[in-house]
Amino acid sequence: xxxxxxxxxxLSPKGFKRFFDKFDEYKERIVLRPQQISNNPEVIRRLGCxxxxxxx
Length: 56
Description:
Helix content is about 45%, strand content about 10%. By secondary structure, the chain is α+β, with helices and mostly antiparallel strands.
């Protein structure tokens, strides 16, 4: 993973610990944006985004 943009993160307790244990690695690769920006079609087109929904 080079970079991720999201409106939120949903982590298990184990994933939460792993995330914060490696926070210094991840902090330059993740950005949390307001939902109005993340869902804006203009921004999506300009960034050439690939969207993925959370797996069920």
